[in-house]
Write a structure and sequence with these properties.
The structure holds two protein chains of two kinds. By secondary structure, chain A is mostly helical. Chain A folds into two domains: 93 residues, Orthogonal Bundle (Rna Polymerase Sigma Factor, Chain: A), CATH 1.10.1740; 79 residues, Orthogonal Bundle (Arc Repressor Mutant, subunit A). In chain A, helix 1 crosses helix 2, helix 4 packs across helix 7 and helix 6 crosses helix 7. By secondary structure, chain B is α+β, with helices and mostly antiparallel strands. Chain B is built from six helices and ten strands. The longest helix of chain B is centred in the middle third of the chain and has 21 residues. The chains are: A mainly alpha, B alpha+beta.
Amino acid sequence: MVLAAGNQDALLELYDRYAGLAYAVAMRVLGDPARAEDAVQEAFLKIWTNASSFDPRKGSLRTWLITAVRNRSIDFLRGRGAHEREELELQPDLAESHGSDPWREVSLSLERAAVRQAVSSLPAEQRQAVQLAYFGGYSQAEIADMTKVPVSTVKGRMRLALEKLHSYLQGRGLYPTDLEAAP
Amino acid sequence: MSDHEALEGAVAAWVLGALDTGEAEAMRVHVEGCASCSQAAARFRAAAASLPLEVDEIAPPARLRERVLVAAAAARSSTLPSAPARKKTVPVNGRWKPAATIQVGRLYAAAAAATVLLALLVGLVAGALVGRNSVTPAPPQVARFTLVGHGPLTGARGTVIDLKNDGVTLVDFKGLPALAKGKVYEVWLITPGGRPEAAAVFVPDSNGGKVVLVSRPLSGFAQMAVTTEDGPDGATAPTQPPQLYGALA
């Protein structure tokens, strides 16, 4: 992306490109505009101060940033420090366009449509388990209490949900071909 | 039941961050040494990374862009402009557990400093994000505190971001009431013994917000507080009890 091209406005571009998604994820988790702003700011600051550790072979800047936003938002939501949670790691991304903005927009639109279709195709209880964990920051034990099922059932729902999501998206060519080989 | 049999069913929960700390650590160790669980974790991580895309984008407030830029510039800068210090002997209000003499160092115009930071950012971006081959300073330690409004400032809030490595602090104020003509808000740093030292003066924007730069480390201070004082320079000692304050720990 533009960062590797020597553009001095890289941070501005990163912000302008992903602030809407970052803020939306923070709002989805927190439901509070003020705290969502804080989470987004801290996530960008984290990316900024750790830029040298970014490894494009392990995923895109978008994933790095959005993961940071999600993690910080969960920290705020749960009232805990970053050291108290298991950090979701940087992941191989969906196939992100490195081309022009028009194509990037088209590509992102296709990704969104595919993800929404994939998520909506999950059985409700599997979708709920994954969303409570990812956007709610709940543990499997908490989700079991909330949904009144054994923890083993929650584990199974999460596993099945992510297996199906992976298969669905991979089947539509939305993962890098070297996904399994990624470090 | 082997470790593998016990743990493989929880790999998805681990990837979603849904295991307790102890469980997560046990899983991490297991996955590192288990090829099949490692592969499963890679598949699940890729799937989990797609989840944010189901959320509709929301345009953030315009001020957030400035906040991010100022914070990023401050985080990377070790040569921030410093405000002139002045030395005065002043009486201090009794509520503040006064000391006889204080040395006051302050920023006279936080807004101007923020502008300078924005200008610095242009040069800093290349070195930090673009110039990947350049030497990068160690990530700064960042501490975060909250200021809460009381009395006439009830509803106001301040988020203190202490960039320890840079020796500067950003304070993001929100919800501040508009000031009477000729008045300013003044930021004070208070020692454990109750001695206040002026740190900055500012006037909030029309939305009651402002990002204020405090170009000094917070070490040695126990609290930060805000009062309303006469402008444009504020007071050399607080003239009223603090209305917005919080602990720096």
